[in-house]
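Predict the holo structure. Ligand: magnesium ion.
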Amino acid sequence: MKQFSWFNATALTLGFAFLYIPMIILVVFSFNDNRLVTVWAGFSTRWYVELFQDEAFLDAAWVTLRVAFSSSTIATVLGTMAAYVMVNGGKFFGRTLFSGMIYAPLVMPEVITGLSLLLLFIAIGLDRGVITIVLAHTTFAMCYVSVVVSSRLVNFDRSLEEAALDLGCTPFQAFKLVTLPLIAPAVISGWLLAFTLSLDDLVIASFTAGPSATTLPMKIWSSVRLGVSPKINALSTILILLVTIGVIAASITSKRSIARALRDEQMADQSA
Amino acid sequence: MTAAVEFAPWTDPTETPLIRFERVVKRFGDFTAIEPLNLSIYRKEFFALLGPSGCGKTTLMRMLAGFEAPSEGTITIGGRDMAGIPPNKREVNMMFQSYALFPHLSVWDNIAFGLKRGDMSKEEIAARVDDMLRLTRLDRFAKRKPHQISGGQKQRVALARALAKAPKLLLLDEPLGALDKKLRQDTQFELMDIQEKTETTFVIVTHDQEEAMTVASRVAVMDNGKIVQVDTPPKIYETPNSTYVADFIGDVNLLHGRAEIRADGLASLAWAEGATPIKGTAGEGLQGGEASFVIRPEKVTITASKPKDRTNVVKGKILDIAYLGNLSTYHVELPGGQVLKAQTANNRRLSRRDFTWEDEVYLSWTDTAGLVLAR
Ligand SMILES: Nc1ncnc2c1ncn2[C@@H]1O[C@H](COP(=O)(O)OP(=O)(O)OP(=O)(O)O)[C@@H](O)[C@H]1O
Ligand SMILES: [Mg+2]
């Protein structure tokens, strides 16, 4: 193994400090017993208590959760279907173009995605509210899901599906009974990713939300403009916690169980 | 015990075949994998497809199972045209080359998988699965997952799963490819036993000519998308219809020359300047002209002195001796440079062997032992 040099240690420390010190400060000050955000006055959880008594914040939290849950679920269904067709659909006209186009929204600036969706909703006369945010989040989260799921599907042994067909399954049964259980870890990790993305999106939600629906990131943004309150720190701490859990869960399910499922699949083959 | 009636439905003109390929062609893009092909396979047959890699064996099987559609021609199974019928609607099951066991299901559930798609009751399914487990001697492994059993056991699970639905037709694509020789031989006999018990029609694909000869009622030898010969194992071995088949099945000696049909029905082949022409049985459709003489090494006798009672005698020098335990193969170089192989059984100790390197010997064979085939 390579020597762990002082240079490496310093670079690593600086890098991580740069990434995490702002968040650590935020978390620490969320427990500050002082109205002034930057002056420490002892430990307290009063801002958390206040936060949970604030109707406006609770409303926003409820909207956010609903949006995240529905958009990630729809995105998972659509994204999985798209990935399945792209990987297994055989040759059809424009396939390469389509699979390239699926990834386009990943690199599209959010402002543009948000703006174009806004124009679309206005054009078709859809009232902006929770529904429009769900639709917008579904649109971009779907790409992420399809990337995660198709990376699993390319390693999937097609003869398993053929075996299921051979044993009397309809194509849909074969998918439900054989393919889906085997790619489930990737699908779940796609869902978690979509959920997390929806949870912390501000730009697209701002474009597509109407006056009737405000998500948490939007609420935070608008209250910070009036001055940072310790309550926001508390809320952000909770969000950081949620997102961290989501990302860790996603990476654990994807890495571990995808690896395990792949290994089982290979070992179920004759070669082992 | 009464003498068994010989099983040979292909000789009976009143018998209708279970499977019939009629002028079937399969193309992938502009590549023709199967040339126009006709083939009949009968009920209860154990039919082997044999041929080099890439000759189209798997493609034929996949067309029977319904994973590929023929580009031209028709395939009928049990008198029914199979065009447009999806795999799940065919009474055909396939044992995959890779086994394709479902990794998330136990051995028991793998075997029950196909049965659950039908309208059998839970009790019937359980009884059938238990039968299959007993038949393939897997009772003890019912609860294990596929990754927890050995290669040979996986192979038996795949077989049990394909057999469970009692299909009319079972397709086996190189089922024993991954097994070692001993296990493979045991499994071959097991397969034959199961085939007899269940009276299912088996079509097996194999690379291994010995395997095909052991298990099959008939063997089809394929080359580049064409079927070259279909016959029983002894006939394929004894009377190949071409040098390709002769060369593919077992070991063979070849001599090239010009053939003539003799008055006594045999053929003679002028194979070298000044040498006496050699005689052999005339192959199908031989007219004379360019031809090859084909003889199996075990039909060539090797002697130190010139045998008096035989007309086919050639003289040569021992080039090499391959000792195979029960057999020895002598490679003998003829004056013209051709090398012939002669095989003898080793029923004596090695130290008392009659011949050694560089010895001058005579090779001889009877008039009907070899075949003269058109080229
Ligand atoms: N889906 C496909 N697209 C294009 N060509 C194909 C396809 N499937 C098979 N082929 C070609 O058809 C030919 C026959 O293939 P097939 O798999 O039937 O060979 P095989 O006799 O089973 O060989 P092996 O003994 O190696 O399994 C090969 O040349 C192969 O490259
Ligand atoms: Mg093959």
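Chain B has two domains: 9-238, 251-374. The first strand of chain B starts at residue 19 and ends at 28.
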